[in-house]
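[09:14] KT: can someone run the structure on this one? pasting the chain below
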Amino acid sequence: METYNIHQAKTQLSSLIEKAERGEPFIIARAGKPVVRVTAVQSPEPGQERRLGFMKGHIRVPDDFDRMGEREITELFGA
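[09:31] RB: done, structure tokens below
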């Protein structure tokens, strides 16, 4: 995450807002010490991001997944 001092943030405010809108949070610092983290309002809270593929290799879908329960469904609905 990039850090900008207050002077930089003031002079580049429009471009920094666009950056936050694209989902790229940044930090504003005063005298080298982080003061605030800027993120878009609709951004998920840290740790709440949806991570696609995080279970890859942990779950296996059976080859007959689309046919599971076929007999029972036929008996119940007579298809």
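[09:33] KT: thanks! The domain at 1-41 is CATH 3.40.1620.10 (YefM-like fold).
[09:34] RB: yep, looked fine to me
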